[in-house]
Structure formats: structure tokens, C-alpha cells
Amino acid sequence: MRPFDHQRILLGVTGGIASYKAAWLARLLTQAGAEVDVVLTRAASEFIGAITFEALTGRPVHTALIASGHALDHIALARAAQLVVVAPATADFLARAVGGHADDLLSACLLATTAPTLLVPAMNDRMWAHPTVRRNAAAAGEIGYHVLDPDNGALAVGEGSGPGRMPEPETILAHCARLLEVPTALRGRRLVVTAGPTREPIDPVRFLSNHSSGKMGVAIAAAAWRRGAEVTLIAGPLDVAVPAGVHAVRVETTAQMRDAVERALAGADALIMAAAPADFAAAAPASGKIKKAELGDALALTATDDILLTTRGSRSSSCVTVGFALETGDARSEARRKLADKGLDFIIANDALEDGAGFAIDTNRVTIVHADGREESLPLQSKTRVADEILDRVEVRLRGR
Fold this sequence. Notes:
alpha/beta; Rossmann fold; eight-stranded mixed β-sheet; elongated
């Protein structure tokens, strides 16, 4: 999986209760295609065993700085790594990293590597708040380490909740991906991505909507942030989590999504409209719950605004704009019509009834229709890979503008 395939990652684990999460991180990194070398400190070994990591990564686990036959492990591991991650990084380890200590294997590896290094502090909230710890975290950033602030959440038993909790492994994985990604045309660019359905109220308890889960738009937002973009995700109700690093604007109705897109377009380099906003709304939403006997034979509907059409004037001439055409039938013909009507650079067409290509699943089969009439039919693949295919083409357009 991009960008982890065939990458060597050194995962350092220090002695905190959050070290159990490092096992899941090791698994995620391995599943993504990386070769993971785990280095456990002596204190970490009191919390979790080396055999756990060996089983998850399929690779030997390293613990000793000085051992027969392993005298230069810290050099070999440091040189082989394309990325170093220390998760959790205790208060003690932060101090040692900033002080340039090298009396254990992990700290020696940090001094010997030239790879990007991500430190993930995790500790009691009072420790994290201590001026010395905060100073060390800031100093680590000044040295060139990337420091991921801890989450606010439940701490060890009896310690309540507060800032100091280690971020979830999926969040750390996303930051690892961003550090591994080669520089692209999206780095530093501002992207607006929409995702999910909208809901148009019929009365206070019912609404008109569709089956969109938001998975496609979220995959695009995640991939764009991984490539270094500043991403605003404008989303209706989602079945998936908002990706790490992405600024989310939550909306309910199509009108709210339209207004949010219009505001976000100021200074945007690209707009990718992957949402499935409701096309119809109740003509007169009721203020109270409609009884069956009161409804009659029909519910009067009205068309909602077409977001790409109504916000066209808010796009700059250099903004790359991508639409989606999810149809049941001749998706490409409808896509070509929408492409011209809405002034798009290209549009992504797919059939909602095709196996593996509809709503609420992890795969998609799409055809990319370009403004010059070219069509590219992509194979069935994960929505993550489809997102990268789309962004590859957005990058080409951005380079030409």
C-alpha cells in the first residue's frame, strides 16, 4: 500500500502502559507493506514481550545495545530505516532524546539515523503538563524530530481523563504515511473535498437521503493529506471516521453543504465533489411529526441546488475541479453531460448497480472522463487506490496551472 510498500520502518517502544497499542501499530505497518524492525527498551519489555512483536511483524526484535554478534545493530538498523517511530515515547525518553543520550539501543539508533523520526509522547496528564516535559517536546521539534501531541482521553486506571493519552494506532499510521510520501504537487496546496450524503427534513423525525457512506470522499481526503495538502473535508453524516490531519466541516442539508463549499473555495487549489447530496427536499417540511393519516397520497418535493453549478462562480480560474457521476445505466454518457454543464476538469463515472462499485463498500470501479473527451476505465480496486488515481490526475492539472 502506498507509500509503505518495501519501506523499512524502525518502531521504537518505550516503557509506558500505552506500549500495548504499539503492537497494533506494528501490525498495521506490516499489513500496509512495510518491513518493521522493533526495538524495545528494557522498561518496555516489562509491559509487553518481544515475542508479541516478532509474531506480528515476522522479524526479529531488538533489545540490547551490546550483545555478542550484534555490536553494530544500532548502526545497521539506523541506516536501513526510511522512517523511525517511537510510540509511546515516555517523558524520560523525550529527555534522553533531546539530551543526545546513547546508552541504550533505541537512543543510539536515533543518533545514528538520518531518516525522518516521529516521536509519539504518552504519559500521565500531569507529567505532560510539566514545564520540563513541554520544553523537551519543543526542543525535540527544534532538533528536527516530528512530535505528535498526545490525545485527550482516558488514562491509566484511577487517573481519570486528560491530555497525555497515546493517539490511536490508525492516527499514527496516517502520520507515518505523510512522512514517507515523496514530495508531490499537492504539498502545500489547499484542497476542498466533499463526502457523504445530505439529509433533507420531511418533519422533525424523518428525512430524504441516500445510501452514501462517505467512504470515497474520505479516502480522497486522507490520500490528499498524506501527500502534504491542506485539506478541508465538507461532510454530511459519515459511516467512517474523519482522517487524521483533515479539517472537517460537518453539514446536514444540501444547502448547508453548498454554503460551506462556497466559503471554502476562497484560495482553494482544487475542489473534489465526491459527496452524494440529496437531489430533492420536501417542499414544505412539517414542524411536527406527520401522522400517516395526514400525509395523503403524495409528498410534495422540490429540487435542491446543484452545488457544482451554483458555486461555479466562486472557483478561481486555476482551481482544478472534479465531479462524480454515480448512475444506474449509462454512467459515462451522463458524466459527459455533467462535465460540460458544470465546467469540470474531469468527472468520475461509476454504476451504482455494479458489483463492488456502489455505496457503502470498500471498492470501486470507475471511468475517468476528461474535459478533452478522453476516457480512462480503471479496474475494480480499493477506494484508497481509486483516490490515488484521481489525485495523480489532479496533480498533473495543477502542474500545468
